[in-house]
């Protein structure tokens, strides 16, 4: 919406500033504005008056700055995902291996309890690391910690089974949580 307002304002201002032999119709001014904003710059129309050149310069700066905002947001999001790609791929690999092995949520509960050496119904990072070889997943300790932190929703340094299930099977976690809440 804002970009359209910038374009229409500048198209009108440039149309008013330029002689009719340079920009004969308002449509030509809109064309010139769009071509200038997109940085294509065909060169078929060029402002000849000082006010026309000033408005065009202002248009170039404004449209560049305005377009830089969404490009920066998209670029930042891409960078975050790219930096996190190894953890995301390992999470996907973990989900596939569990699904391929035919493990049910009950099997995961048993595995989880077996690894819970101190019996506090939570896995510490050291206990969590023992889970990876059981699923034939190899990863560096740094990546394992990143995956662990993904599961550790509350940031307390340990994961309970609910957090683990949410990370591995989000849909099943939702279903189990919904059943637990709707039970009388």
Rg is 29 Å
What is the SS-derived class?
mainly alpha
Across the major sheet, the strand order is 1-2
Termini separation comes to: 51 Å
N-to-C SSE string, H for helix and E for strand: HHHHHEHHHEHH
Low-confidence blocks of residues: none
Coarse shape = rod-shaped
Q: Report the major sheet.
A: 2 strands, antiparallel
How many extended strands?
2
Instruction: Tell me the β content.
Output: under 5%
User: Average pLDDT value?
Assistant: 83
What is the helical fraction, as a range of percent?
over 70%
Tally of DSSP helical segments: 10
Structural account:
The structure is a single chain. This protein has 184 residues and is an all-alpha fold. The protein is 71% helix and 2% strand. Strands 1-2 form a two-stranded antiparallel ribbon. The longest helix has 34 residues. The two termini are 51 Å apart.
In short:
The protein is mainly alpha-helical and 184 residues long. Helix content is 71%, strand content 2%. The protein has helices spanning 2-17, 26-37, 50-83, 85-101, 105-115, 125-129, 131-134, 141-151, 161-168, 170-182, and strands at residues 122-123, 159-160.
Walk me through the topology.
Blueprint: H1 2-17, H2 26-37, H3 50-83, H4 85-101, H5 105-115, E1 122-123, H6 125-129, H7 131-134, H8 141-151, E2 159-160, H9 161-168, H10 170-182
